[in-house]
Amino acid sequence: MKVPRGKKLAIYRLSEKSLSDVLAEVSQKKNTGYVRLTAEKEDLMDFYLFLLHGGVVAAFSETSQNQYFGDEAYNTAFLPYKRGLMDVRELDASMVTLIVNNYPEARVKNSTIPEVPEEEQVPEEYKVLRIANMKIPYGMALDFHLSVDTTGFWELLEDMEERSFSGYFRIFAEEDDTPRDGCVFFFEGKARASIYESGSEVKYGDEALFKVLFTFSLEKGVIDFHKLTPEYMSAVLEHPALLLSGTPQEVFHRIEEEELEAIQKTRSYFGISEGDLVISSQVRELAAFEILLRTLQDKKIDGYLVLSSHDGAGILIVEGGTPRAALHLSDNGEMTASQALEAFLDQIQEET
């Protein structure tokens, strides 16, 4: 089911406000739209509870394996989840009615808030974190959290080193309705491994660390901390795919060198000099790229546009601000013209 984004009215962490409280609030305000709950119970689960004048009229949920509709999805949303984010969004009443009519199986027949069962207490040593198709020891969760918008990535690494921390921090954020979930593992204060998951995308090691750093740049989300015993840390570090090739500084220095080398190769392909820098911008989405192209056209720039990331680099030749030629280089090979433009767009939808 594709759900319109709508207008964001509020966002809550599940640890701060229960779903029952949120539904009571939207009922009182007679909101029309939906409440989206992204929760974790061995796997990430998405719940959509559709509202019409404050009442729940339909429900839908999905995991990586299954989809649920109607009362089953509604009742499952109230199970005890230790971790989650809730979004309240506004939609036009006609849009909610259209969704309900198109998905009659999603209708909720009984919107009474169910009794929440007592959560089964599982010993810490048996808990695991499921992320990126792997099971990671959950460890001992520390009773404090940090907000990403007030925490710097490099400062956090320094703090972990000063504390000789053994375990991992986990960053969880959401952008464009897509959850980002990543971990960096430390042994005696040194960053040793990393893992990352976002939708169907999974990364390990150096690439995962790059994704975690980018998630920090979004300035949204929360960070949790988990201590691991030496035995559990050894179990994590036995997975070679998770290991970093060096310190985080060395990893990013290598990535920067590879990007610079790719940029130099693309310039030499066309035999052009470095030129004068006119615009420098970080492009995170296609809309921003379109704005950048319009700016080049407005300024009628003759020159070239370089796009680079850890996945490769490309160059777009512009004449009077209009694209005339393109080249993209990566580990997958060399692409020119329209194929290079397609590679640009794919790269921008990652992070550039």
Order of helices and strands: EHEEEEHEHEEEEHEEEEHEHHHEEEEH
Strand content: 25-35%
Largest sheet: 7 strands, antiparallel
Shape: globular
Q: What is the number of helices?
A: 9
Portion in helices: 25-40%
In total, the number of domains comes to 3
Q: What is the averaged pLDDT score? A: 83
Compute the separation of the termini in Å: 30 Å
Total E-strand runs = 19
Cα-atom radius of gyration: 23 Å
Structural class: alpha+beta
Query: Uncertain regions: pLDDT < 50 for 5+ in a row?
Result: none
Explain what the structure shows.
This protein has 352 residues and is an alpha+beta fold. It has three domains: 7-106, no CATH class; 124-246, no CATH class; 259-350, no CATH class. The chain contains nine helices and 19 strands. It has helices spanning 19-29, 70-76, 93-102, 153-162, 205-217, 230-237, 248-270, 286-299, 337-350, and strands spanning 7-13, 33-40, 44-52, 55-62, 67-69, 83-90, 128-131, 134-137, 140-141, 146-147, 167-175, 178-187, 190-198, 201-204, 222-227, 303-309, 312-319, 322-330, 333-336. β12 (178-187) and β13 form a beta hairpin. The longest helix is centred in the C-terminal third of the chain and has 23 residues, at 248-270. The two termini are 30 Å apart.
